[in-house]
Amino acid sequence: MMESAQGLPIEDWPLLRDSLKRDWPIYAYYYNWAINAIKWRKKDPKSAWSIYCPGGRYDAGAFIATASNGEYTVIVFAFEESKDMLQKIITDSDVIDWSREITFAVVHQTFADVLERAIENMKFIKKISFATMKKTTTINYFQSKDECLQFEFQVPDDCYLRPLDVSHIPLVNSLWPHQNRKNPELSQKYLETFVKLNTSAGLFRKEDDALVSWILHDDIGSLGTLQTVEAHKQKGYGKIVAKALAKNLAEREGLDSTLFIVQSNVASQKLFNSLGYRPLKKVCWITLDMKY
Predict the structure, then answer these.
(1) Average pLDDT score over the chain
(2) What is the superkingdom listed in this entry's lineage (predicted)?
(3) Alpha carbons 98 and 291: distance in angstroms, whole number
(4) For the chain, does the N or the C end have fewer beta carbons within 10 angstroms?
């Protein structure tokens, strides 16, 4: 009989993290996420992730993690041999709040089918229904920390580079393609946690301190929300901030860089290909807009 999902003791989180080194770098972004979850729990337990494993065991080969930081985000994971276990803990446990709009983030292609079957089963098990189900497919990119340490870049004479703060998030949120259109204040609060608990890289004009390009270290522990304001595109600013943040994370936190690019975003794919990033597997986001 399979065990139900139970909270993983905080002292076992590093053990779960290290188990994700398997088949490197296929699950590297889960490893980075676990590092980030541990860091966030230390900095701010109220906005930290919660992790649940079968029987509360880190070595069970599957887990569910949840966080509510404006957006309600759920991460599910299973090694190939543990896919049946993952489906069972999704459908049999009460750790997912099915009454909310849910984003299942960074769902690896090796078990995306398991999650989708589990969601279908929940229609009958818990009588859930949802107004919409949106699936966004991305490509996972990877660059080792040693490679990131070799990045070189030149900041233009009329600009300067520094991290963002929460005052910049309204602009970031307004231009973010994945902004919560129905409740933009939720995605704004979500992005605020990135700059409060992680680092970032922003390029600013000296003449008026205007933010013109940026990239954040997100809740998954990956590079995200790369954007340049329209008037300053085609100047190479995106490459500057992307290199700066990846190099900073390699130097200060010893992190390899992971990121996700929407499959149709050819421009971003070209940018990160030019920086030497390797495309790995497809990864999807599944968002459920629940209704009752």
Answers:
(1) 93
(2) Eukaryota
(3) 10
(4) N
Question: Do 211 and 202 form a contact (C-beta atoms < 8 A)?
Answer: yes
Edge-to-edge strands, sheet with 50-54: 5-7, 50-54, 62-69, 71-78, 102-108, 278-291, 129-143, 257-262, 223-228, 211-217, 200-205, 159-162
> Could you tell me if 163 and 217 are in contact, meaning their C-beta atoms sit under 8 angstroms apart?
no
Q: Go through the chain and tell me how many residues it has.
A: 292
Closest listed residue to residue 201, CA positions, set 238, 156, 175: 238
DSSP code per residue over 142-155: EE-HHHHTT-----
* Those residues with Cβ within 8 angstroms of residue 201's Cβ, 6 or more apart along the chain or in another chain: 161, 163, 214, 215, 241, 242, 244, 245, 248
The strand ranges marked E within the chain are 5-7, 50-54, 62-69, 71-78, 102-108, 129-143, 159-162, 200-205, 211-217, 223-228, 257-262, 278-291
The CB density around residue 5, as the number of other CB atoms within 10 Å, is: 26
- The pTM is what? 0.94
85 pLDDT more than 80: yes
Rg value, the chain, Cα = 19
| pLDDT attached to residue 47 | 66
Residue entry with tokens 């129905």 = 182
* pLDDT 10s digits, 257-291: 999 999 999 999 999 999 999 999 999 999 998 76
Kindly report, residue by residue over 89-144, the tens digit of the pLDDT.
Answer: 999 888 999 888 899 999 999 999 999 999 999 888 878 887 788 999 999 999 99
CA angle 132, 138, 144 (to 5 degrees): 145
